[in-house]
Write a structure and sequence with these properties.
Blueprint (H helix, E strand, L loop, with lengths): L1 H31 L3 H45 L1 H21 L2
Helix pairs in contact: 1-2, 2-3
Length: 104
């Protein structure tokens, strides 16, 4: 699941880089052209920006949902096996404590 989220983020990054390149092209064109053509380009840019904003919001929402689902799974596992969960947490704490003492 983490790989899928990273892949989605890479795709989003690539699309945002493409958008940046398009914006640079549009800015150059706006400098060269005036009037009606520039307003059409600005409208196109606004539509594209809105599209990418929605895509970014969707990606963030999906990542949040994936994280929430993982937390729910951990919570359910703890409810089913509280003693085992307590022992795992205690063991992890002991291991981290030992590691931190080694590096002092």
């Amino acid at each position: 699941m983490a790989e899928k989220n990273e892949e989605s983020m890479d795709t989003l990054r690539n699309e945002l880089n493409t958008l940046r390149d398009q914006m640079e092209t549009l800015v150059k064109s706006l400098g060269e052209k005036g009037g009606e053509a520039s307003s059409d380009m600005v409208a196109k840019l606004e539509r594209e920006l809105e599209h990418y904003r929605k895509m970014a919001a969707d990606k963030v929402h999906k990542a949040y949902e994936a994280g929430s689902a993982g937390i729910e799974q951990v919570g359910e596992q703890v409810r089913r096996n509280p003693v085992t969960s307590l022992l795992v947490a205690f063991g992890a704490g002991c291991a981290l404590s030992w590691l931190f003492r080694q590096y002092r």
